């Protein structure tokens, strides 16, 4: 309690201002720095290439296992002691993180550790703030409710973060898919194979849509190393949970199986996706008047009434007061 008593309001305000200043400077710095969107993804794709190569090209070759002592190993040890790692759960979690773009082997460990630690951090921070500032001193139930709320928020914060990243990623892929299919049609008509077409489209779409280029590059790598080409296309449909991508995957599997023309099928799909994207844009435009009604009533109309009726009200008030006195 003596530690909590030493924390005063000025210290908390100073720390809050310092954190806000750091976040603002970091945000401005991130906007000014020009980054290559494929720089970090190429390392992951190269690691996946080496993994597939070691597993399918030379499975009998002995490899030296070097144990790296880093923070991920400490996280794994703690999770193993707490028995929070489950093979069935980790398989579903790996797919969930892959849909968000986190495909490294350590992503599952980091996510599980963050999910276990974030509720405790939220509860500790809430306790320090409440007892340090003597908030809700007259209402103990509100203190407990606030602590429980922060605990629940910390428990679901990693899930909300992964869900938000996944939705943004899928939205970016959905917007860039018609253009990518048009490029694939051109590559197919030029005589390129599916592997070469995916690599070429990935290079062309690297800056415009790094998410889709990342998925196409990984699919091309798996097409060259997996024993069945259908598995590589199926993995693409699992990583990108979109109806449009599943249609493309089904078309590519059918083309690989029956030898149907690839360019014609992709051209039809590209046209359908463009029409669907246009319909979604028209739907948003049609919904705009209803959405703008509430801001119009709350913010625009009161100001308009003040501007139009204010001079008249002032004139009437002056006339009435002049006659009275």
Order of SSEs: HHHHHHHHHHHH
Beta-strand percentage range: under 5%
Distance between the termini: 66 Å
**Number of continuous helical runs:** 12
Record field, number of beta strands: 0
Shape assignment = flat
Write the SSE topology.
Blueprint: H1 2-6, H2 9-32, H3 39-57, H4 71-81, H5 87-99, H6 107-133, H7 140-189, H8 194-204, H9 210-225, H10 229-239, H11 243-258, H12 262-324
Helix pairs in contact: 3-9, 4-6, 6-7, 7-8, 7-12, 8-9, 9-10, 10-11, 11-12
Description:
The chain is mainly alpha-helical and 325 residues long. Helix content is 82%, strand content 0%. The termini are far apart.
Looking at this protein, list some descriptive labels.
single chain, 325 residues, mainly alpha, disordered N terminus
In short:
Helix content is 82%, strand content 0%. By secondary structure, the chain is mainly α. Residues 1-6 and 56-69 have low confidence and may be disordered.
């Amino acid at each position: 309690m003596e530690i909590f008593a030493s924390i005063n309001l000025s210290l908390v305000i100073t720390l809050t201002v310092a954190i806000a200043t750091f976040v603002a400077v970091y945000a401005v710095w991130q906007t000014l720095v020009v980054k290559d969107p494929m720089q970090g993804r190429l390392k992951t794709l190269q690691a996946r290439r080496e993994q597939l190569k070691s597993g399918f090209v030379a499975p009998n070759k002995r490899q030296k296992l070097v144990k790296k002592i880093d923070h991920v190993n400490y996280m794994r040890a703690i999770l193993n002691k707490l028995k929070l790692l489950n093979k069935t759960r980790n398989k579903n979690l790996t797919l969930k993180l892959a849909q968000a773009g986190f495909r490294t082997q350590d992503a599952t460990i980091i996510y599980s550790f963050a999910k276990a630690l974030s509720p405790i951090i939220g509860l500790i921070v809430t306790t320090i703030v409440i007892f340090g500032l003597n908030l809700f001193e007259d209402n103990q139930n509100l203190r407990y409710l606030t602590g429980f709320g922060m605990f629940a928020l910390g428990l679901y914060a990693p899930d909300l973060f992964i869900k938000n990243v996944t939705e943004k990623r899928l939205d970016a892929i959905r917007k860039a898919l018609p253009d990518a299919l048009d490029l694939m049609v051109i590559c197919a008509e030029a005589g390129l194979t599916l592997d070469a077409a995916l690599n070429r489209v990935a290079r062309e779409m690297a800056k415009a849509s790094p998410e889709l280029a990342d998925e196409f590059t990984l699919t091309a790598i798996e097409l060259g190393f997996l024993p069945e080409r259908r598995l590589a296309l199926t993995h693409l449909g699992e990583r990108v949970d979109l109806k449009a991508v599943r249609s493309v995957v089904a078309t590519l599997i059918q083309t690989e199986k029956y030898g149907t023309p690839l360019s014609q099928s992709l051209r039809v799909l590209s046209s359908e996706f463009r029409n669907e994207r246009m319909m979604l844009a028209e739907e948003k435009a049609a919904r705009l008047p209803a959405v703008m009604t509430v801001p119009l009533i709350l913010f625009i109309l009161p100001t308009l009434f003040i501007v139009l009726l204010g001079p008249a009200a002032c004139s009437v008030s002056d006339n009435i007061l002049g006659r009275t006195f």
